[in-house]
Amino acid sequence: RFIEGFSKIAKPMTKLTQKKVKFEWGGKQEAAFQLLKQKLCSAPILALPKGSEDFIEYCDASNKGLGAVLMQREKKELNMRQRRWLELLSDYDCEIRYNPGKANVVADALSRKEREPTLRVRALVMTIGLDLPRQILNAQTEAR
């Protein structure tokens, strides 16, 4: 079963499994254990969706995390331009679905909780020699 916040609730107990930690069952561990028992036996309980519609997974990733949402929706009709593309691509064994960032807001929001400042990237052309690690370090230092 799914228990929201399981890792935080179970933390006092999971700490006991770490190396160099003496196993002492105390009040915090007992409280966590009782709360987990209560949550295992009560609602909400996740269940499989009903119906035969296809599932759609929206996902996005960034340096800070990964976000994914599983959804179902009705299929919509393709316009003429999309039908022509579909006909052109029908010779290939592939499935291509493009979701621009504006349309992928659910997963995009999950993966970008904290935004990182963008890094400036520059091209570097050099001859590889024995001092390559030093040259890489110098180039990285100069780029900042």
Automatic annotation (TrEMBL):
This is Reverse transcriptase domain-containing protein. It comes from Tanacetum cinerariifolium. Signal peptide: none annotated. Residues 25-76 form the Reverse transcriptase/retrotransposon-derived protein RNase H-like domain. Gene3D superfamilies: 3.30.70.270. One of its GO terms (molecular function) is RNA-directed DNA polymerase activity. SUPFAM superfamilies: DNA/RNA polymerases. InterPro entries: DNA/RNA_pol_sf (IPR043502), Rev_trsase/Diguanyl_cyclase (IPR043128), RT_RNaseH_2 (IPR041577). Keywords: Nucleotidyltransferase, RNA-directed DNA polymerase, Transferase. It holds the Pfam family RT_RNaseH_2.
